[in-house]
Amino acid sequence: ELPAIEGLARVDVVCLDKTGTLTEGGMDITEVRPLNGSDEAYVHQVLRSLGSSDPRPNASLQAIIDAYPAGGDGKAAWTVTEAMPFSSARKYSGAAFTETDGTSSAWLLGAPDVLLPEGDPTLGEIDHLNEQGLRVLLLARVPSGELDAPDAAEGDVPTALVVLEQRLRPDAAETLKYFAQQNVATKVISGDNAVSVGAVAGKLGLAGAENTLDARRMPTDPDEMATAMEQNAVFGRVTPQQKQDMVAALQSRGHTVAMTGDGVNDVLALKDADIGVSMGSGSEATRAVAQIVLLNNSFATLPSVVAEGRRVIGNITRVATLFLTKTVYSVLLAILVVCSQVE
Q1: Who has the most CB within 10 Å: 69, 88, 91, 188?
Q2: How many whole angstroms separate alpha carbon 260 and alpha carbon 31?
Q3: 54 is a catalytic site residue
Q4: Would you say residue 144 lies in a domain?
């Protein structure tokens, strides 16, 4: 939408979703660590079966599919009896299978700090990986039952850690540097682990990347949330509703907010932001509510859009100044002429 170009030039805060904006959509599996004495070959078979359970995999699951394709090593996936796609609210996906020998099993794959109880010793190992900017998923076996039940993760048995490497966009660092030079604050809000998101932002040179905050500990009061937003730069484990609330909190402090994203979990925030920016490869809902769609899927396009908007505003200001000056001189000249006639 053409007015959005001028609007983006007035933005003083840009909220970014990490995946698809600072990082490329794809990921690569760097390591699978079996836990509690689990057999590595069995873990690979579970991952292979999970990959075949979702017809519309997200980036993490696609990396698993690429690493463990059905038919790989001459092994086919197990029969899927129940499947639960990934949810930004739950932070995990799951599936139940009938294995080759006829036994049944159910599995969850998702955020370790959600699936593991607080204080679990495995979380320390995971934090070390997150500090390197790696994304870590936990594979856990759960008792057979309703996978989408609120207590589905209770009694789960950690089976393996899946370590994923995120591909940083080569032009993201320069884009963040441009916004800093233009006095535009950058806030990274992501559903991923806060430490991991902070490490990625730090690699890209984002000012304040060391100030990371887990959104599960954020205050719900709008004024306190606005203060937290102004004091911190990186937020992890953010739910779709929180993204919307964060945008509203910044707007309540008089900020003009732009929001970028590519997934359905960004729709609420994109819709409420002063300027919504979607990637061309994003979901249909995201593109529908955004005022700007980056067809080349490159966050690095935004500086040129901002520059164009500011050029337009500058031209309008100069023309307005010119006409104001001419009007003042015309009025003064008219007054002088009237005064001279009176004399």
Answers
A1: 188
A2: 31
A3: no
A4: yes
